Amino acid sequence: EAAEKSGYEHFMLKEIHEQPKVIKDTINSVLTDENISFESVGLSDEDMKNIQQVYIVACGSAYHVGMVAQYVIEELTSLSVRVELASEFRYRQMKLAKNSLAIIISQSGETADSLAALRLCKDKGVRTLGIVNVVGSSIAREADNVFYTLAGPEISVATTKAYSCQLVAAYLLAMQFAKARGEISDERFAQLVEEINTIPEKIEKILEDKERLQWFASKVVNIKDAFFIGRGIDYAVGMEGSLKLKEISYIHSEAYAAGELKHGPISLIEDGTVVFSVVTQSALYEKTISNMVEVKSRGAKLFGLTTYGNYAMEDVADFTVYTPRIDNLFAASLSVVPLQLLSYYVSVGKGYDVDKPRNLAKSVTVE
Ligand code: G6P
């Protein structure tokens, strides 16, 4: 097992470090030079033109990818998008639109609820696309089309590299939808191609600075509760950060859309409550900062996660982490990495079994 960890103490840390490579592999599987081709997936431009409604169905972290995907697809195309938890979707009486595509996101391709949702869509005559990591898995076999993420085997129960590959798969899909439907200019498309290719090297940069997060983790190792706030894509990343933290460090943690704070959770803020704030979306920057000020005035300790250049963050946050600048649409790919590292170091600091957290399974094949 030590050999399989290639010198890393845990699979999770190894897999966090594999992200630049596997993201690159996933991008390169459909992007050549300036063009994206979904031929291997089996989705033609004509298909993409005719689709009007997209349903994204998944569980756990894959659902969080779906949330990011929703923002990105909505921003780039005229498609209507809904993201659903597979365990809810399968028991609802949802009226599925004609000309729709159901995207099932699953690392293992075996999650019982996601598989059931896929079957339900097929029964209702809705075309299905799996974004799946495991070749030949049930969802990959049964979906009409499959976009394979190339994360390789993921051992740690808490997903990192598979999540990151799912994100880029979603971006590429959104970009090609926009292109096929004539909803994006050539310049903007070329710009996004350039930007998506910078994700791996920018993650390398973040990984170089991991000791800072390790230090910060040592300061929060004994907290009992944590909150994550953000808006838009930052909210989706906050949900993933919060899930990671609770999964492996057993700290009670909740993610909230920053604008919802005043509708309840602000009553839980006391002196010293730690609030992680993800603030990368320029159009929402001021709004989230004002929410940070609100919780700070009630005693919160603030962790601010933003991009280089937003140095005013230091006037509000007690601890700030910067990620390299990138197109707002792709920010999740960078901001999730410090949150992965943070959860990892908190779990290690508490002496827990990072790769095999209690009560959780890598793949949930029962209901
Ligand atoms: C389990 C795993 C999560 C994963 C979820 C969905 O809860 O611990 O990491 O996000 O299942 O799994 P899937 O294989 O469908 O992506």
UniProtKB/TrEMBL annotation:
<keyword id="KW-0808">Transferase</keyword>
<dbReference type="GO" id="GO:0097367">
    <property type="term" value="F:carbohydrate derivative binding"/>
</dbReference>
<keyword id="KW-0677">Repeat</keyword>
<feature type="active site" description="For Fru-6P isomerization activity">
    <location>
        <position position="362"/>
    </location>
</feature>
<feature type="domain" description="SIS">
    <location>
        <begin position="44"/>
        <end position="183"/>
    </location>
</feature>
<dbReference type="GO" id="GO:0006487">
    <property type="term" value="P:protein N-linked glycosylation"/>
</dbReference>
<dbReference type="GO" id="GO:0005829">
    <property type="term" value="C:cytosol"/>
</dbReference>
<keyword id="KW-0315">Glutamine amidotransferase</keyword>
<comment type="subunit">
    <text>Homodimer.</text>
</comment>
<comment type="function">
    <text>Catalyzes the first step in hexosamine metabolism, converting fructose-6P into glucosamine-6P using glutamine as a nitrogen source.</text>
</comment>
<keyword id="KW-0032">Aminotransferase</keyword>
<protein>
    <recommendedName>
        <fullName>Glutamine--fructose-6-phosphate aminotransferase [isomerizing]</fullName>
        <ecNumber>2.6.1.16</ecNumber>
    </recommendedName>
</protein>
<dbReference type="GO" id="GO:0004360">
    <property type="term" value="F:glutamine-fructose-6-phosphate transaminase (isomerizing) activity"/>
</dbReference>
<dbReference type="GO" id="GO:0006047">
    <property type="term" value="P:UDP-N-acetylglucosamine metabolic process"/>
</dbReference>
<dbReference type="GO" id="GO:0006002">
    <property type="term" value="P:fructose 6-phosphate metabolic process"/>
</dbReference>
<feature type="domain" description="SIS">
    <location>
        <begin position="216"/>
        <end position="357"/>
    </location>
</feature>
<dbReference type="GO" id="GO:0005975">
    <property type="term" value="P:carbohydrate metabolic process"/>
</dbReference>
<keyword id="KW-0963">Cytoplasm</keyword>
